[in-house]
Design goal:
By secondary structure, this protein is an alpha+beta fold. It has helices spanning about 130-140, 235-255, 270-285, 335-340, 345-350, 355-360, 365-380, 385-400, 400-410, 435-455; strands at about 10-15, 15-25, 25, 30-35, 50-55, 65, 70-80, 90-100, 115-120, 150-155, 160-170, 195-200, 210, 225-230, 295-300, 310, 465, 475, 485-495, 500-505, 510-520, 525-530, 535-545, 550-555. It has a seven-stranded mixed β-barrel. Helix 3 (about 270-285) packs across helix 7 (about 365-380) and helix 8 packs antiparallel against helix 10 (about 435-455).
Length: about 550
């Protein structure tokens, strides 16, 4: 096997000479060399077989093209990966390491745990080069698995391609998504209850579970939880029936209104802490694809907890102010509420957020957890000093290679990015160098954190203010808990500001207590009924406004 190792390269970009004289004799980053023997790399299966050589000094010395000992030298199967990014001038790739006989070869690449499935991701539109690495690093610091990444420089068929990230593919594995591998013969009992990874994403034709409920009441979009593991052509009928029933039961609960019960509510289905942290990362970064694209969920067996976990986080190129649409460049506002409440978005985009995200965000207990977790993280992981130190560490490691990288890719601040689809970059006038890119990104994050700090305390546990949009109609929910002793919570919703009376009566129709008699703003509210001095029995509570009245019963058991 022969590889081209030369110091000077000429490169073509968009059919014309884009940069010449890129000199790569050595690098502080690993050097990855791919040779396809003249074959074009396809966008889909079947992959082609190619040769892969990795130059990497594990002791930390510089990596030289003249090094005689390779970190890896062998066969791979490779294809282009991505949707919109597949049309860009610099591609990203998925590849598998192979033995000579074509079987999978589990290896450790660049210090990452052994596997055979890998990704070479080109941070092309993200000229900071760090957004994915940053969010994955934050997720791991917060206690959740996210793909580990190692920067490298890539040469493909003797042509220098620039900086890439070697990444772990999302996969069931003891070192990746650590859930059971669900075999086709595991179709009953505890066996069938776990080992699932679902995805909300483009490619809606992929097999999966069609949501029973539209993203919003007036939407005609059918959202699909795609089968990621097992894949659609691998999942067997019994497994499909189980995970479909699980998701439908969860959706029914979130749609029908009894979701807030801490025992029989959503906490029986969700690892709530994972959803809190997932939301924090999406809102911190104001990810324009958040919640609705590249959004993963996974479920372990019941014997190992059995809850649905949010994540792993994936694909944050268009985050941290790096996209000029859907208001994602703004440092104020909740991105989730833009997706669920903005009529322009709802009417003009096909990729929406599952309806239950808004329900979660409207729940007082969830908001309380969100507020408390944010406060905790701001002391360390999400402190400005910690975030800036991490960004500086990434930028410093790339300071040498980024010079070469931007000789073959659009420079920071450039707006002409060649072929393919790109969002408008709202920050380009502020950026004339890589240092500017890093500085502007840090400033955006600081401003975003300031806004969240100021507004997250508005997420009170007792009232949902106008920040979240008004409910569509009046409602009175079943009290929780029920039966109760001695106190219970009564929740209600108002589509507009209303004078509200909430009264409690005994079975003889006698007034026991007047819980509310005042004007409330539109939104979701709750009151507490304390029956410490009352005897066991059935009671009735009534909500009355000028145009609405409803009565429900509740049971006090002492």
């Amino acid at each position: 096997m022969t590889f081209f190792r030369a110091a000077i390269f000429s490169f073509l970009f968009c059919g014309s000479v884009y940069a010449q004289g890129v000199e790569l004799t050595s690098s502080n980053l690993p050097i990855v060399i791919i040779n396809t023997e003249g074959q074009s790399i396809p966008m889909d299966n079947p992959r082609i077989i190619a040769d892969l050589q990795v130059i990497f000094d594990e002791n930390g010395s510089r990596n030289n093209l003249t090094d005689t000992e390779d970190h890896y030298n062998g066969k791979i199967s490779i294809e282009i990966r991505g949707e919109s990014s597949a049309g860009w001038d610099i591609k990203s790739y998925s590849f598998e390491t192979k033995n000579e006989d074509g079987s999978n070869r589990n290896v450790s690449l660049l210090g990452l745990p052994e596997e055979n499935d890998w990704i070479l991701h080109a941070p092309y539109y993200d000229r900071s080069l760090i957004r994915n690495a940053l969010i994955y690093n934050l997720s791991r610091e917060m206690g959740w698995y996210a793909s580990r990444t190692v920067y490298c420089e890539v040469i493909l068929n003797d042509v220098y391609q620039g900086i890439y990230m070697l990444m772990e593919k999302i996969k069931r594995d003891k070192n990746r998504v650590d859930i059971a591998t669900l075999s086709p013969d595991e179709i009953s009992g505890d066996d069938v209850t776990g080992g699932y990874i679902l995805r909300v994403d483009k490619e809606g034709w992929n097999p999966g579970i069609d949501s029973q409920y539209p993203p919003t009441e007036n939407s005609n979009v059918t959202l699909r939880y795609q089968y990621y593991e097992p894949k659609g052509d691998e999942i067997v009928a019994e497994q499909e029936a189980y995970i479909q029933r699980f998701m439908y039961d969860f959706e029914d609960l979130m749609h029908d209104g009894n979701y807030f019960d801490p025992i029989s509510g959503y906490s029986q289905y969700l690892d709530v802490d994972s959803f809190v942290d997932y939301m924090i990362l999406n809102e911190l970064s104001r990810n324009v694809d958040g919640y609705r694209l590249s959004s993963y969920l996974y479920k372990q067996k019941d014997s190992d907890g059995g809850k649905l976990v949010a994540g792993p986080v994936w694909d944050y190129n268009f985050s941290f102010g790096n996209a000029g649409y859907y208001e994602s460049e703004a440092t104020n506002g909740w991105q989730l509420l833009y997706f669920t409440d903005n009529q322009s978005f709802l009417q003009n985009d096909s990729f929406h957020v599952p309806f239950w995200w808004k329900v979660l965000f409207s729940d007082g207990d969830f908001r309380k957890k969100l507020r408390e977790r944010w406060s905790e993280l701001r002391e360390n992981t999400l402190s400005i000093d910690s975030l800036n130190a991490t960004i500086d560490q990434f930028a410093e490691s790339l300071s040498e290679a980024q010079v070469r990288n931007f000789q073959v890719r659009p420079e920071p601040g450039a707006t002409n990015l060649g072929g393919g689809w790109y969002p408008y970059d709202p920050r380009h006038e502020q950026i004339n160098s890589y240092e500017d890119e890093i500085s502007v990104t840090k400033n955006w994050i600081s401003d975003r954190i300031d806004w969240i700090d100021e507004n997250i305390n508005l997420l009170t546990s007792n009232e949902l203010d106008n920040t979240f949009g008004a409910p569509d109609s009046y409602s009175l929910e079943q009290n929780y808990p029920n039966p109760f002793n001695p106190s219970t919570i009564i929740r209600f919703s108002l589509p507009s500001s209303s004078f509200v009376q909430i009264k409690v009566f005994n079975i003889h129709g006698q007034l026991v207590q007047n819980l509310a008699s005042k004007t409330y703003n539109s939104g979701n509210h709750q009151v507490e009924f304390n029956a410490e001095n009352l005897s066991s029995g059935m009671y009735f509570y009534t909500l009355t406004t000028g145009t609405f009245s409803l009565t429900k019963k509740m049971l006090l058991v002492k």
